[in-house]
# Entry
Amino acid sequence: MSGSDLLGRVRRALGPAADDVDPVEAAARIAWSAVVEPGDAVAGELIASLGPERALGAVLLAVDDGIDGLVARCAEAGTAGAEIPDAWAAVLEAALDRWRPRLGTVDVADVLAAASVVGSSLLVPGAPGWPLGLDDLGPHAPIVLWTRHRPADEGPTTPDRPPALGVVGSRANTVAGAEAAAEVASAAADAGCVVVSGGAYGIDAVAHRVAIAAGTPTVAVLAGGIDQLYPAGNVDLLRNVARQGMLAAESPPGTRPTRWRFLARNRLIAALSDAVVVVEAGARSGALNTAHHAGQLGRPVFAVPGAFSSAASVGCHRLVAQGRAQLAVHPRDPALAAVEAAGPVPMEVPDEVLVGAREDPAVVRVVDALGRRALPTEELARRSGLSIGDASDALALAQLQGLVTHTPGGWARS
# Structure
């Protein structure tokens, strides 16, 4: 592929932002994102001081000619750390050892082709639509973001415009935890907040579903590539998130989710949010990692623990006891903190949240439509007078409340 063809693909991936971005610099960022793991601070410092294209060229030269030239360039550019040349040289040597296996195999054209298959767009720092909160991560900020969102003619949703509330918590939540997460997400929707989470089972899924049901934008940050909708059981949910809000990933398409990438992903959830709330979290829950990042970034952190005897709430109780999180006394507290942190918003926040799932008219209708035998979603939609989409959302909320279960034969009363 010629250089002009490649740059044309880069411009198409950038979409409306193409006029504001140097495609050569964007291509270098894509290459960097395929070489390094998320949050690599050495790569971040090199890109910040040398620029992505020059930094990549200097690294490639260092692989062939040794580290001295790269150290000298860093010293000239004032790269953080380069003021102590010997120590910085050791840091760069270790970084080159990490990057060398991928440097010779990265193909920007392949990355762009894989992104285009799923209709993904490219965001780079400084371009219109780049979430400014990510810049708070400094050298740990993502090099690029791949996104999937609703069509441009409907107005793409970016998480840095309205207030954003990060809602995270246990994957193995209790029914009470699901109810609490639903009320918190409902309050966020009432306050005009974007709901940010990670698309996982449990509390993440509750937050996304409630946002979708409320018609408010929601953002799911993926731990792998933008084409890796994980977990498998949430594929339909994540597609709905993309239709109503946005999916975002910093790793190139094809990157599989791993434990390390889930932990790295959590810093993005924190940075994209104006406040973060943890609804149930075990002693080793990844949600605690998100709370830690949020605290480091100066975001307000809230916790919604259950009973002190519940293993699903140990982490939340510790956050509060250690002064790392405020206790959410009311479901609207985290949303109000997000609105305040984002700045004044011309809207009133209701005193009370939307009705709970048990009282939701759609939930009542689908549960009432169930008889003695299991029924598919389509039949329940017909019986309840709801659309298939609304019936699906109502059944999901009813399942979280323990009112229905999904069996091989369809939906049945619990």
